[in-house]
Write a sequence for this structure.
């Protein structure tokens, strides 16, 4: 009997060693493929060239947007003057409003005119005018994250101690968090709130003022805003000068992460619900909104550490299935299925499979790739990156979004797409170098 047990134990060990050897060899083969893929060099070169031209979001957007800049700042630091990047971050702080809120972006006064009634001015920077799509709740968190990325790459933590009028930049970032807690927060759920939009989008479904809060707005919490908050609070913890601040930000981070999973995660369906409404839904009771899967918010939840490895694996499988069912080109698909046109009477941007209602965005698809690499799914990341790389090379540039037939739409030379794809490639190649 003992001999049989020993024999079985030996066979088990041998099998395990063989499995480990095969796994290691597969990783080596994949690493070799990644490192020798010249297409990745082509896309990286295009991204670096584009991001060396400045900070506006794209040819269709002459403004500098913080939610965009936050996604390409890492590559910008490699190819652009660092003092300019530092000053760009501080410009957002100088345009901060007395209540602590951060603008979406800015332009030089007189450079661009548009009909937005929400123009923002500051006596601390009289050369620029700010603007804000108030349906969003990611401007403050994007700025904090951008500061974090800048500091991690440059080691220039002195930017936090730069005096902006009578307060340091760090104090003003704290004011930005306080703004969210005072004006964009549900005391009941202890989560950030915003308007009802499609996933991470900036177009409210009710129409009305479209990108601005108005009487039609239905307030809600969603995973994108709160995952962004968790990531920003991680940065605030690292920025903290004293134990009291570190404790405050840590407790808020943990509370937000816990409640995001508690109230927004559907355990039975293993997905995040689209919205948790504060005071009523904009949709008819006959519409089951929870059938809709938000790809972008799920990607940011991965980055925020809100999902286990098993949950990430399931999420990726679900997103790939959504791509197959929808006919979309890549996992950059914003959501699936799209909101039916007959229940969202807003602007033309709300049409099915158009723009944020089922368009395909590398700006978020690239972030899915990043998180697959970060969480041990390098093969899946490389495979799912292929159609994004192919179309950048085919079209010769980066675009804002793509239709179901893979045709480019929106702004060309879209820096957000360039930034996230460049970072995804860097992460894949770093993995490959460690596994070759």
């Amino acid at each position: 009997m003992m001999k049989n047990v020993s024999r079985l134990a030996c066979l088990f060990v041998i099998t395990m060693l063989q499995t480990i050897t095969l796994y290691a060899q597969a990783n080596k083969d994949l690493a070799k493929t990644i490192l020798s893929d010249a297409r990745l060099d082509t896309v990286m070169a295009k991204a670096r060239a584009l991001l060396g031209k400045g900070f506006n979001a794209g040819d269709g957007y002459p403004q500098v947007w913080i939610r965009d800049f936050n996604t390409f700042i890492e590559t910008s630091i490699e190819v652009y003057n660092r003092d300019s990047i530092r000053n760009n971050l501080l410009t957002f702080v100088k345009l901060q409003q007395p209540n602590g809120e951060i603008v979406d972006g800015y332009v030089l006064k007189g450079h661009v005119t548009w009909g937005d009634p929400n123009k923002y001015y500051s006596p601390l920077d009289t050369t620029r005018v700010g603007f804000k799509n108030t349906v969003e709740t990611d401007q403050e968190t994007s700025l904090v994250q951008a500061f974090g990325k800048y500091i991690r790459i440059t080691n220039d933590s002195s930017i936090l101690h730069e005096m902006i009028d009578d307060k340091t930049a760090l104090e003003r970032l704290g004011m930005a968090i306080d703004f969210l807690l005072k004006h964009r927060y549900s005391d009941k759920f202890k989560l950030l709130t915003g308007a009802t939009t499609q996933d991470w989008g900036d177009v409210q479904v009710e129409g009305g003022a479209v990108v601005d809060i108005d009487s039609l707005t239905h307030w809600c919490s969603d995973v994108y805003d709160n995952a962004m908050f968790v990531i920003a609070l991680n940065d605030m913890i690292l920025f903290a000068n004293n134990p009291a601040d570190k404790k405050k930000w840590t407790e808020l981070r943990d509370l937000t992460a816990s409640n995001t999973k508690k109230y927004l995660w559907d355990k039975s369906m293993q997905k995040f619900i689209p919205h948790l409404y504060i005071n009523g839904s904009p949709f008819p009771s006959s519409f089951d909104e929870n059938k809709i899967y938000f790809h972008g918010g799920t990607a940011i939840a991965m980055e925020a550490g809100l999902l286990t490895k098993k949950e990430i694996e399931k999420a990726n499988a679900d997103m790939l299935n959504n791509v197959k069912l929808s006919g979309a080109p890549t996992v950059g698909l914003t959501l699936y299925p799209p909101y039916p046109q007959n229940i969202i009477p807003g602007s033309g941007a709300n049409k099915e499979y158009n723009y944020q209602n089922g368009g395909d965005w590398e700006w978020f698809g690239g972030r899915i790739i990043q998180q697959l690499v970060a969480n041990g799914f390098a093969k899946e990341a490389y495979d799912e990156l292929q159609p994004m790389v192919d179309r950048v090379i085919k079209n010769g540039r980066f675009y804002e979004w793509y239709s179901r037939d893979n045709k480019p739409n929106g702004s060309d030379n879209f820096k957000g797409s360039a930034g996230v794809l460049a970072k995804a490639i860097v992460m894949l190649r770093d993995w490959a170098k460690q596994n070759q």
User: Anything to note?
Assistant: The radius of gyration is 23 Å. The CA atoms of residues 372 and 380 lie 7 Å apart. The chain has a mean pLDDT of 94. The first strand starts at residue 64 and ends at 65.
